[in-house]
Amino acid sequence: MLAAAVETEPGEEKLLQLTLESQRLWPEFARELEAAAGLSVEYRDEGTMAVALNRDDAAQLRHSFEFQKGLGLDLQWLTAAAAREREPHLKPGIAAAVWSPRDHQVENRLLGRALAIAARRAGVELVEHCAVHEITISGGRASGVVTAQGSLKGDVVVLAAGAWSREIGGIPKANLPPVRPIKGQMLALQMDPAAPLVRHVLWLPHGYLAPRLDGRLVIGATVEERGFDARLTAGGLLALIEGAWRAIPSIEELPIAETWVGFRPGSRDDAPMLGPSGIDRLVIATGHHRNGILLTPVSAAVVSAYILGGRLPEIARPFSPERFAVEPAGAL
């Protein structure tokens, strides 16, 4: 979900500038990637709705709407009737909704495949299913990695291991990015692709619904501080299904297609870390939390610019990993 507008919360004003820039880059990024890979990433621009199911939900949604409109975001308040015109399977009696025409979506699994194909066609060697044990640091600079298949040397090392970024050895403790796993349970139901129950991404009071062109309806996601616990729980799945059912009652007839657990990489301030690590030639790109796919184009542009030019673009400076640097004892 490329939801720069409806996901923005108070305190995220600086992050909004980065997410809006990445959202602006996405259409051309998708076109270029599809041309390079010969594979669709199913970039969809139907827009997104945030739905209030009752009066209390509507009051909270109105508060968020006014805040987001105050930031200049393109949003429209919808009556219940107008919302159900766009999504007829929303339950009768919903309170209201917000329409966000610029918040789009992409099929993340196809995106991953397309990026791999395009990279290989560009001459990149991808080594899959090969654990990186540690980053080699010599003479105060990163010089390569030690993997399950041996050592590799490099002029620059980019640490982009998501929630696992602190699990890789060789980095002094003071330079480890402060990133942690934030567990998310999810499931997908199977709709009829020719007559889907849901046609837009829907943000609900508890979770979201994301329809895919193959008929899957993705329902997500829990937010849990449980480390790398990959177990699905009855309570987690119940909460997701119940939250979706309260908005779209007819989902109860749909078969469950898939369930899974993922781990978002969360930083101390829930914003990404892009750029210098404090170690020469070691660049960090992690901590994207729930915005990893949304921030893909701008992250690629920022990290590339830093590696090639030695300077972090202005838009990314608030997100330098150096903001978490610990001052040495006795420093003024």
Topology:
Blueprint lengths: L12 H25 L10 E5 L2 H16 L5 E4 H7 L9 E5 L7 H14 L10 E7 L2 E7 L2 E4 L3 E3 L20 E11 L10 E4 L2 E5 L4 E5 L13 H14 L8 E11 L6 E4 L5 E5 L9 H14 L23
Helix pairs in contact: 1-4, 1-6
Strand percentage: 15-25%
Oligomer: single chain
How far apart, in Å, are the first and last alpha carbons?
44 Å
Question: What's the order of the H and E elements?
Answer: HEHEHEHEEEEEEEEHEEEH
What number is the mean pLDDT? 96
Protein architecture, described:
- The chain has six helices and 14 strands.
- It has helices spanning 13-37, 55-70, 80-86, 108-121, 234-247, 296-309, and strands at residues 48-52, 76-79, 96-100, 132-138, 141-147, 150-153, 157-159, 180-190, 201-204, 207-211, 216-220, 256-266, 273-276, 282-286.
- An eight-stranded mixed β-sheet has the order 2-3-1-9-10-11-8-12. A three-stranded antiparallel β-sheet has the order 4-5-6, with no helix packed on it. The protein has a three-stranded mixed β-sheet with strand order 7-14-13, covered by helices on one side.
- A hairpin with a 2-residue loop joins strand 5 (141-147) and strand 6 (150-153).
- Helix 1 (13-37) crosses helix 4 (108-121) and helix 1 (13-37) packs across helix 6.
- It is globular.
- Mean pLDDT is 96; it is low at 327-332.
Outline:
The chain has 332 residues and is α+β, with helices and mostly antiparallel strands.
